[in-house]
Amino acid sequence: MPRKAENQVNDVCLPGDPFPSIRAGYKTNLNYSLDAAAGRYLVVANLVNASEACFDDAVSAIKSHRAFFNDTDISFFGFLDAESTWRQKAQDSLPGIRWLFFSRDADVALHRIPPFCWILVDPTLRVLTRAPLQFHRSFLSSLALLPPPAMHGGSVIDPPVLIVPRIFEPDFCAELIRHYDSDGGQLSGFMREVAGRTVVQHDLNYKRRRDVIVGEGPLRDATRARISRRLAPQISRAFQFDATRIERYLIAAYDGDEGGWFRAHRDNTTKGTAHRKFAVSINLNADYDGGELRFPEYGNRTYRPPLGGGCVFSCSLLHEAISVRRGRRYAFLPFLYDEASAAIRKENAAFLGLKGLGDIEHF
């Protein structure tokens, strides 16, 4: 009996286990991360190296249960090897049905997923259940019994975020806004890993924001002093993390006229951003609608700090800034880290497709 229990623990993708972090080719992204799909149930069919007949059976099963897959509650992802002779038969059907393709030298994470099986993954990317492909009828029919994604744990689960009011006083917020308006802002990008380097990319379907970097001088010194005195002690108390360094002194604006947003993402998924520990979002104004923060893995609740207050959260959490519907949301958006992370940043500097290391100041 003990031997059987030990074997179960050493098995992969058991209920309660984290689903492996997968990257694979997708039709619009050759380095697609399944992590970005968190916040809903995922049905995964691992068909890598499966026969064409097995593939046809799986596709037929999915089509007969098409109504479940809406990208709001449940999404389907089929895994195939990129060299499959019938690859052209694997057609996406949006919303809800997507196919990912793995090369023969695929990420080792793929080898941690049982072959020829169905896997049901919860909104926080943990395994709920799994079944051999031939059991598609009972497996897919059971999707009707799932509770709403936000209730997958039996009750609403709040994300581990910290709201800290009164970091910046109103007059200082106004000063930062004036500084932004005097510049006008530049189109903001996001970080991606391309050919082994961390580079900035732009896609208005993914992110619509304009930024201004506060250069060296009294205004930058004043922001650093306030974060050091008023925010860092609260982070230490809540998370037992001593933030000692700050990356970027960035004022951002999400404009309602542009439908300003930033789709769901994590802030530390590339070599050039791996050092980031906590993200901070300090609101500089209140006269706007929309623009709240949401953490899809933990349901649909949104977060909006008060004027001068901030929301602090781990850079590993999936999060998004929802569209601003009216007005313009101004925010100060630094990343915080510590001395151990500074060593990681220095080590990974060679992978940055940017000049230098940016802001590496101590508090």
TrEMBL record:
Protein name as it appears in the record: 2OG-Fe(II) oxygenase
Transmembrane parts of this sequence: none
Isomerase keyword on record: no
Keyword Metal-binding recorded: yes
The organism's taxonomic lineage, starting at the top: Bacteria, Pseudomonadati, Pseudomonadota, Alphaproteobacteria, Caulobacterales
Domain Fe2OG dioxygenase: 245-339
Alphabetic keyword roster: Dioxygenase, Iron, Metal-binding, Oxidoreductase, Vitamin C
Co-factor(s): L-ascorbate
Classification via InterPro entries: Oxoglu/Fe-dep_dioxygenase_dom (IPR005123), Pro_4_hyd_alph (IPR006620), Pro_4_hyd_alph_FE2OG_OXY (IPR044862)
Domain of life: Bacteria
